[in-house]
Model the fold of this input.
Amino acid sequence: MAEEKKSILPKGLRDFYIEAGETTQFAGRFFREILFPPYEFREVIRQSYEIGYKSLPLVGITAFIIGLVLTLQSRPTLVSFGAEAWLPAMVGVSIIREIGPVITALICAGKIGSSIGAELGSMKVTEQIDAMEVSGTNPFKYIVVSRIVSTTLMIPVLVVIGDAISLYGAFLAVKVKGAVSFTLFFHQVFEALNFGDALPSVIKSFFFGFAIGLIGCYKGYHSKKGTEGVGRSANSAVVVSSLLIFIIDLMAVQITEFFGLI
Amino acid sequence: MKEDVAYHVMAPEQKKYGDPIIEISHLVKSFGDNHVLRDYSLTIRKGENVVVLGKSGCGKSVLIKCIVGLIPYDKGSLKVFGNEISEIQQQELDELRAKIGFVFQSSALYDSMTVRENLEFALRRHGKGKSRTEVNALVEETLDNVGLLHAVEVMPAELSGGMRKRIGLARSLILKPEIMLYDEPTTGLDPITAKEISNLMLKMQLKYNTSSIIISHDMHCAQLTANRLSVMIDGINYAEGTFDELRKMNDPKVHAFFEIL
Done:
């Protein structure tokens, strides 16, 4: 019998590379499957409702609090420099460029990523995915493609709504501490912002959404047997997608800088 | 030379059944070092109910998953309606699957869908062209057959174990398959419900004129439903025959299954 070739890499590193390779293959299969019919439009709409609409309250509340707290905490520093008038501009740029997309994506990684990981994991364990395949439906297309498409489309929408709510929270914080009108606040915010701030922010949100959907689906679809495996899938879906969000954010900043948009 | 039959063949009464519809010959399947199916051969004829007996983990479920193409086999031949499963394209496999009903051990009902949606799901691909009225009539007829018409709008989580099995059976029957594959249909049920499910399987076989492979280690179910039994031991078709023939066998490995009766 041929002896198994011993790897020179430590087990942890080898497992990491194997998982990275499998995730890439999984992503490749997504791009292959999305191109060819049948298209699961109804399931995409249903998932978009579940992922987008049902995440709105959580994203909205969090965005509002972040906008409010960021403004309240930044104000004393700006006041000490005599730059209080810059507060709307500073808060606006911070929220639109960075805080809005990243916080929204992290919240969605927690809520949606874990939900997808657990749902698919439990479907796998209870043979529902096999049952779908036996009935002649391509489970990858029906379950995975629809969810990844939905997260990719819905996260940018949630980011834009979250940004708007966050800016409103910032306005209320400024309003509480001093006399500023709604029009003046938003005039100052939009004067400080330009196309180069908004566009990269929206584009990277698509990648955040793709990463959340991809990792959630991959972890759930490859869940090992048993309830422990389902829990592990949900947990690692959140951890890995959160990490990926920061990596994508870092890459987005580099690319934005390369194109001179910062 | 290998034979295409079991090691202990007890006068199979195959003449009264139709042509072979599933032909398994020297099937081999391993998972790493775990050799599950070593050299398994079995033929199922039209209208026949064959129960595959074996201990837990001996590869019974793997066998029927190979038949529907859920698990690829390593060696040997597996023909369903004359089609070699490992050689057909995905589209042909999907068409073939429409003729095969599969009842999973855990029922595998879709948790997020109602009973009606569970049944309609199978019609998504194979029931195209049917009007809403036809689909509704088909769903209601199938549920009526398993005695659960009243549960049409219920979610699977609200059903008992026996009801889930019945819905699982109804879902696999909705396309009126020619072959039924049952993966431990009575496991986890009390004896009365298990008997009801066994009787229901027989009733459905008569109504829809199906041929079946029933994976089980429930001897009462086997006694009630089998025209023929295959005893799987160490990944081979160790013994084959009718219930009474196998019960009379002196082989201790075969006899062990009948001791509980």
